[in-house]
């Protein structure tokens, strides 16, 4: 079986989406020419799944990609504190048939309120959970840095893709971690030896509207940790940035929320979206674009900038300095590419779970 490589090329994906509805059912059939002979990408998903709902859509998308054998979701770590965050992630993982994916929480992250995490408290008429989950609150989850160290220590060298779509607190703490019972290597060396690349949703590398210095939330809400990430990062590991402009140019269509989830009257992704946005809003897909690039880097959904170095200034502004040997590149996206991205993200987010699938493809 062929390994999946950073920067590979393959034919353009052809997406056919046929949706047939009955009262409570939605049958979704997709056809792509995506290369099925590639090994699944081992993924760590680091998310601030408390505020915006794009984190929920991105997690659903990862599960669909795992159903298709394109990724192996090794762990989920959470970069903001909320007593229901770990339980909610566990409920989503369980809904998609992967209840045993380890979940880690940060001890240094700031707290955040949420409009949708309380979905885990919903009960059925018989008193059982509407959304099954084993973790009841964050005290049942693992420490994020410990989980990151364990996951990397167990992985093959230069194999794991870290998808970071929130604050950089967990990654910064990982880079600062010391040798321990898990691994004799410090965190910096673990990252250097085990990661294939990092796909990061953060920053703004060009004007946003008339504002030439947009301060993107994942940076400005914890500037120190993002500075630690860019300053202490091993230069041999590529970082691919999906900045604010990409997700806002590829919005998730409200008609998908209305129509594509009818196969389950209590779909947690749909319910979370409605709690956050209401039914009349197309939400930017910031976090989804980092997932899509990480798992399908060579499928032509995005372009890439030249190589360079990202600098995080003290006010939270992200500057990009061209450098031929820099570790950083950022995504670009034309209008035709944006149309493809919107459609493929819709397909991947709304696909019914295959609860008999496993994350890892075997020969």
The parts where pLDDT drops under 50 for at least 5 residues are: 1-33, 359-363
Annotated CATH topology: Inosine-uridine Nucleoside N-ribohydrolase, Chain A
Q: What is the total domain count?
A: 1
Give the tally of β-strands.
15
Q: What coarse outline follows from CA principal-axis ratios?
A: globular
H/E series: EEEHEHEEHEHHEHHEHEHHEHEEEEH
Distance between the termini: 7 Å
Quickly name the level 1 CATH class. Alpha Beta
Estimated structural class: alpha/beta
Count every helix, treating DSSP H or I runs of 4 or more residues as helices. Answer: 12
| Largest sheet report | 9 strands, mixed
Report the β-strand fraction as a percent range: 15-25%
- Which strand order do you get reading across the main beta sheet? 6-5-4-3-7-8-9-15-12
What do we call the CATH homologous superfamily? Answer: Ribonucleoside hydrolase-like
Radius of gyration: 19 Å
Mean pLDDT across all amino acids: 90
The appropriate CATH architecture is Alpha-Beta Complex
Question: Into which percent range does the helicity of residues fall?
Answer: 25-40%
């Amino acid at each position: 079986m062929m390994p999946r490589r950073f920067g590979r090329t393959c034919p353009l994906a052809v997406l056919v989406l046929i949706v047939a509805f009955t009262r409570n059912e939605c049958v979704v059939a997709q056809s792509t020419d995506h290369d099925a002979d590639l090994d699944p990408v081992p993924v760590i998903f680091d998310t601030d799944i408390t505020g915006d709902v794009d984190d929920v859509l991105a997690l659903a998308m990862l599960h669909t990609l795992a159903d298709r054998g394109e990724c192996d979701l090794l762990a989920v770590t959470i970069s903001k504190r909320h007593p229901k965050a770990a339980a909610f992630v566990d409920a989503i993982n369980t809904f998609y048939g992967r209840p045993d994916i380890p979940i880690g929480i940060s001890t240094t992250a700031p707290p955040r309120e949420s409009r949708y995490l309380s979905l885990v408290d919903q009960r059925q008429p018989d008193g059982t959970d509407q959304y099954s989950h084993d973790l009841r609150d964050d005290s049942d989850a693992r420490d994020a840095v410990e989980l990151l160290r364990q996951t990397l220590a167990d992985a093959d060298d230069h194999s794991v893709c870290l998808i970071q779509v929130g604050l950089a607190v967990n990654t910064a703490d990982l880079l600062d971690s010391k040798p321990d019972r898990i691994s004799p290597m410090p965190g910096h060396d673990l990252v250097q030896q085990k990661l294939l690349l990092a796909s990061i949703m953060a920053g703004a590398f060009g004007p946003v509207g008339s504002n030439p210095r947009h301060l993107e939330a994942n940076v400005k809400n914890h500037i120190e940790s993002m500075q630690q990430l860019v300053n202490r990062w091993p230069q041999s590991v590529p970082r691919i940035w999906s900045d604010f402009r990409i997700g806002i140019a590829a919005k998730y269509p409200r008609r998908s929320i209305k129509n594509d989830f009818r196969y389950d009257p209590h779909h947690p992704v749909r319910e979370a979206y409605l709690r956050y946005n209401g039914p009349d809003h197309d939400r930017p897909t910031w976090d989804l674009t980092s997932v899509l690039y990480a798992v399908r880097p060579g499928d032509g959904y995005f372009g890439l900038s030249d190589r360079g170095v990202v600098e995080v200034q003290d006010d939270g502004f992200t500057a990009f300095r061209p450098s031929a040997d820099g570790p950083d590149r950022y995504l670009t996206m034309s209008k035709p590419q944006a149309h493809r991205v919107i459609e493929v993200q819709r397909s991947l987010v709304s696909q019914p779970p295959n609860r008999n699938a496993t994350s890892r493809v075997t020969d």
